[in-house]
Amino acid sequence: MAQGGYHLSINDHQQDLRHLFVGLNMPVTLSGGEKPLINFDNAATTPPFQTVLQAVESFAPWYAAVHRGGGAKSETTTRLYEEAREIVADFVGADRDSNVVIFVKNATEAINKLAYRLAQARDRRDIIISTVMEHHSNDLPWRSKFRMLYVDVDDSGRLLLDDLKKKLRLSRGRVRLVTVTGASNVTGHINHLAEIADLAHQNGAEIMVDGAQMAPHLPVYMKGSAGSGSLDYLAFSGHKMYAPFGTGVLIGPRKTFDYGHSEIVGGGTVEAVSQRRVRWAKSPQRDEAGTPNVMGVIALTAAVKTLKHLDMSLVAREEAKLADYARKQLSHIPKIMFYGDQENHNYKVGIIPFNIKGLTYDKVALDLAHEYGIAVRSGCFCAQPYVRKLLKVPPSEIEKEFTGTDVTYRGMVRVSFGLYNTKSEVDLLAEALDSISAKTSKTITPQW
Q: Is 380 a catalytic residue?
């Protein structure tokens, strides 16, 4: 990739950035003819950068197994694989001396791995504090291993820091970890991580951040500043930041991973084995069993380099502008209902959840896809407790979801932006929703 000129183009000519991506403007055949596909489902996955495909293609002739190989290909592969850890660490401001970068399949696997490792070293600190706004991947892995407390949110879906303070105080030093999303995959709300980190540390706990919706859209600094606000653990996925599926990252203190062993063990995780004893390898090798996804790591590294070159502060500002424009355009849609904080847009990534009164969430999503070629996501986005809270679903109806046979599940529609989306695409979305809203039937029972 040519390394000049993109800093200005992102600010003034967002359309110029589209050539950096693969798969935009692909035609889809609809009932009314052929239209270009518009993707507003970036919180689920993003299209890859051209640089990602170029990096994989350039590396392919050198593709070989990492570590312990004596040939030129293996040595090259190993060097690039290990250099990738440094590139990723620098991208998120992690201290390379005290932290280790572990490559996994995705953020879900990263959080499961951390839960397993911390459970091996359990002490009197047997409590994990999570929040109501978490993706299931930052909730379910902890439940079978620790006692759980959940920080509540207000009616707008913002985290209640006073509730976190209360739970830390009442737990009297028994909290092992505070685990929280950097940015919500439902509302886009950005959490005040530096303050949360300081509260955790002041109470003898560590902090883990699910960065899946943060790393592609915001600058991340694990080190903190001026001796405060440092993050202990960070997880994120490549497929949400313009790289392919199959590669994720877990970053955390080396001392954590040099105790115990991984949830998956086998080749590459050991230094010595007899029929009676095992001497485990040092981390990260201890936590990367089997032959790793080197192609995926090369792809992730290319995406990280491209994002860093574009400047994450600028990425955040431009995406925020587009999201603000979209909220204004969509606010004119009859019967539209937004969720989350509609006042403090400066503390959001580009995610807009909504419903159209009189239409079910899945109906709206299907109409957008099948009639207009616009991809969005609908449902609960793997964050059911949070979505129910935003929808104000009564406890009696929640109970029916677990005991009933004829259950109506609640949900919403989610529009989520990537770096390549444009105002003209937002205008087409607004026109489509306006048309869909005008067709609402009185016979349809609303699901909210």
A: no
